Structure formats: structure tokens, C-alpha cells
């Protein structure tokens, strides 16, 4: 290329070198490489030159300059380091594209109203626990104005009414009473232990003392009144000192029965008047005949009792009223409570004679 044929005007641009093509050293730093790349191959910032070339010489210069740019770009993207850098760049761009797509998909579309904020759901207040019902008492409370009681009496030598056969001292009597109380509290039947009582009247009735209103409590059992009314139904008291001995009492449920009866006595029966001369067998036979008459259809038991009964209740048509447990002779009581209203019993024998019983209610 001749100098005379080439007219090259190189103007300096803001103090830059007149014609300095960029060199691409083989050991360019990683930072320098990133600064010249923004895509796979990355556009390379050309030197800040302004070259005016005319004719064939200008075209030659431009080809030379293009080759230099290609050489530099190839050096930066070729070889192992260049391949790794290109792969990292592509991966980074892929992640950036996915991130931008996700952000664009989650964004609210223009024109749509903003989503309402989530409403705060308040948890319902905890339910108030209902107070537990108090446990049922072990022994139900008895009536305030009337009580039924059973007793066992353990006498000591010299106690009021004690039999001559009683030889234990007072301390031994108290210890024995506590033993019986323990047995009763553990479930032993009262009738089973009543046979050991030293009080004949209650012993004969299985320990039954009777049923009494509070204001008509018998004087004989006065020391037991407050003790019995303080007990629940079925509850057993501690041993209580009494003139007749140490007493263990148990409160029973008040149960009553209303009856009428016809009594036929015999000579020698309990409370029989001296004018009664018939024998026991004759009395039983007469009672059987009266039972048959009272059992006929349409029979008037009340009228028959007024006419034939030998008890003080005859004037009332044999009416004994409503009476609680423990007040009758055991055989009479058992028969009376077993009847239904209006029914007649069989002929019942007691110490008083022979009975025909009708239950009223």
C-alpha cells in the first residue's frame, strides 16, 4: 500500500490516542472480562476513535480494525476460562428470566381491584366448665321430725335391767359394743347381730326399736334421741352409754302400713282378760272361720271386726291406723307389709292370739 495513495486523517477525540487499537492480553483478569460482556459473546467496547479513511486505503483500515475486534472477542470467549464464563452467564440470565416471570405472574393485573386483606378470625371463648355436682351422700338424710331405729344393747354386770347371766364388766361391755359396731359398718346384717343383744324386747324383734315422732320419743330411749336423729339412713352410731348398757344404733327408713285386724285370744295369751277360757286350738279354729267369712264376696270387714274382734281396736272396726316398722309383733309386721291394699292375710299367730289382717293402704 503506497503512502502517496493513502490519505488518512486521524483526528484525536477528546485527548484520546490517535490510533490505538485495544490489546487483548491472554491473561486478562476475570473482572475485565465481565466488564466487556453483557450477553453470550458480549459486545466489545471499541476504542473511542474517530477514523476518516478514503478509498481503498480506508477499506483496508476498516478490515484490519474488524479483524482486531474479532481477535479480541475470540480471545475472551475461547479456551476453558472463556467457556466457563459463557456458561455461567447463560445460567445467570436464565435465572433472571424465571425470576422476572414469577414476579410478573404474582403481581395483580392492572384494572383489577386490590385483594381484600384477610379477615382476622377470632377463636371462640373457651366454654366454661360446669361445676361438678357434689357427690351423693353415702347415707341419705332422714326425716327431720320422725325416725326409725334398730339397736343392739351390750349390758355389763349391774346395769339396769341386766340379766343375772351377764358377768362382763363395763370396760368389756364397751369393747364388745365397738366390735359389733365395726361388723355393722362393714355390712353385716342387723338381724344377724341382734341375737347378741341384752335387751329382750328389741332382741325379739330383730333389734327393731320402733318408729317414733321426735316429740313422742319414748322416755326409755331418751339418751338415743339426738344420736339417732343425727344419723343418715343406714348409718351406724358409735357405742353410746345407756343405763341398760352400751347401745349401738342404726337409723332405718321410715315405712308405714295402715291395717285393720280381727283378734281371737285364748287363755294365757298376752294381755288376755281372765274371762277368756278357750284353748289355743279353739282360738285358732275360730280365727279360721272368721277368715272364711271375711273372704266372701261383698263381706264388710269393718263390721265383722266390730262384732267379733277381742282387741281394743274393735270399736274402730279393727283400725290400727298407719304404723311404722318396729311397732308390731314381728309376725304381724311381716304379714302386714307383704299385703297389697284391700288384701287379707292368712291367720297369723302372735303372743296376743290369732289375727286376720286387712291392709287398708
Notes on the structure:
The protein contains ten helices and ten strands. 23% of the residues are buried. The chain folds into three domains: 75 residues, no CATH class; 107 residues, Chitinase A, domain 3 (Roll); 104 residues, Chitinase A, domain 3 (Roll).
Summarize this entry quickly.
The protein is an alpha+beta fold and 361 residues long. The chain has helices at residues 30-35, 55-77, 79-106, 170-185, 190-194, 200-204, 225-229, 280-294, 301-308, 330-338; strands at residues 8-11, 50-53, 146-154, 208-213, 240-242, 245-252, 256-264, 319-324, 348-350, 353-359.
- Determine Rg (CA atoms, Å): 63 Å
Low-confidence sequence ranges: 1-53
Q: Name the helix and strand elements from N-terminus to C-terminus, one letter apiece.
A: EHEHHEHHHEHEEEHHEHEE
Q: Supply the helix-strand structural class.
A: alpha+beta
CATH architecture annotation of the largest domain:
Roll
Binned, the helix content reads 25-40%
The strand order across the widest sheet is 4-3-6-5
CATH topology of the largest domain: Chitinase A, domain 3
Number of domains: 3
* Count of DSSP H/I helices: 10
Mean pLDDT metric:
79
Summarize the biggest pleated sheet.
Answer: 4 strands, antiparallel
Query: What is the 3D form?
Result: elongated
Strand segment count: 10
At the first level of CATH, the class of the largest domain is Alpha Beta
Strand content: 15-25%
Distance between the termini: 153 Å
Amino acid at each position: 500500500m503506497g503512502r502517496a495513495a493513502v490519505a488518512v486523517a486521524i483526528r484525536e477525540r477528546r485527548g484520546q490516542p490517535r490510533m490505538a487499537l485495544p490489546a487483548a492480553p491472554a491473561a486478562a483478569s476475570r473482572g475485565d472480562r465481565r466488564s466487556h460482556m453483557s450477553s453470550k459473546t458480549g459486545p466489545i467496547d471499541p476504542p473511542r476513535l474517530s477514523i476518516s479513511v478514503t478509498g481503498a486505503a480506508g477499506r483496508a483500515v476498516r478490515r484490519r480494525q474488524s479483524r482486531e475486534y474479532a481477535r479480541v472477542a475470540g480471545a475472551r470467549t475461547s479456551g476453558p476460562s472463556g467457556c466457563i464464563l459463557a456458561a455461567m452467564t447463560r445460567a445467570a440470565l436464565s435465572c433472571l428470566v424465571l425470576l422476572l416471570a414469577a414476579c410478573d405472574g404474582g403481581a395483580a393485573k392492572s384494572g383489577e381491584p386490590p385483594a381484600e386483606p384477610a379477615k382476622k378470625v377470632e377463636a371462640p371463648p373457651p366454654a366454661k366448665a360446669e361445676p361438678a355436682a357434689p357427690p351423693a351422700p353415702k347415707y341419705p338424710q332422714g326425716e327431720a321430725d320422725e325416725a326409725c331405729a334398730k339397736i343392739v344393747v351390750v349390758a355389763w354386770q349391774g346395769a339396769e335391767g341386766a340379766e343375772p347371766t351377764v358377768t362382763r364388766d363395763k370396760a368389756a361391755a364397751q369393747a364388745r359394743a365397738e366390735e359389733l359396731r365395726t361388723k355393722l359398718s362393714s355390712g353385716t346384717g342387723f338381724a344377724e347381730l341382734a341375737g347378741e343383744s341384752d335387751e329382750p324386747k328389741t332382741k325379739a324383734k330383730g333389734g327393731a326399736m320402733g318408729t317414733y315422732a321426735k316429740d313422742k320419743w319414748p322416755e326409755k330411749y331418751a339418751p338415743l334421741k339426738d344420736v339417732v336423729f343425727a344419723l343418715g339412713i343406714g348409718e351406724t352410731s358409735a357405742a353410746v352409754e345407756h343405763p341398760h348398757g352400751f347401745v349401738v344404733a342404726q337409723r332405718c327408713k321410715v315405712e308405714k302400713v295402715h291395717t285393720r285386724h280381727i283378734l281371737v285370744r285364748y287363755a294365757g295369751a298376752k294381755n288376755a282378760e281372765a274371762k277368756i277360757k278357750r284353748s289355743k286350738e279353739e282360738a285358732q279354729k275360730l280365727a279360721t272361720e272368721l277368715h272364711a267369712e271375711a273372704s266372701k264376696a261383698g263381706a264388710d270387714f269393718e263390721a265383722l271386726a266390730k262384732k267379733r274382734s277381742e282387741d281394743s281396736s274393735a270399736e274402730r272396726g279393727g283400725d290400727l291406723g298407719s304404723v311404722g316398722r318396729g311397732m308390731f309383733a314381728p309376725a304381724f309386721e311381716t304379714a302386714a307389709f307383704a299385703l297389697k291394699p284391700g288384701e287379707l292375710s292368712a291367720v297369723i299367730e302372735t303372743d296376743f292370739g290369732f289375727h286376720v289382717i286387712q291392709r287398708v293402704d
